[in-house]
Specification:
By secondary structure, the protein is an alpha+beta fold. Strands 1-2 form a two-stranded antiparallel sheet. A hairpin with a 6-residue loop joins strand 1 and strand 2. The mean pLDDT is about 90.
């Protein structure tokens, strides 16, 4: 079972703008897929982006709370 997390960086132009922003593509595979699938099942998520959104927000909140 592969537990690697693959994240690819890219530059994307913002809609209706010439400004470039950083974009990330995350490959959901191996152990990460199993974990995301379990979160989808437990929380009733429809898509992986919903899982990732909450993982990021909850992780940020935990890091902030740990430093306060």
């Amino acid at each position: 079972m592969n537990s690697n997390l693959v994240i690819m960086n890219e530059k994307i132009k913002k809609e209706n703008s010439e400004q470039e922003v950083d974009g990330l593509t995350i490959i959901v595979d191996g152990v990460i897929k199993q974990v995301f699938d379990r979160f989808k099942e437990l929380k009733g998520y429809d898509e992986y982006n919903e899982v990732l959104r909450d993982v990021i927000v909850e992780g940020i909140n935990k890091i902030i709370n740990d430093y306060n």
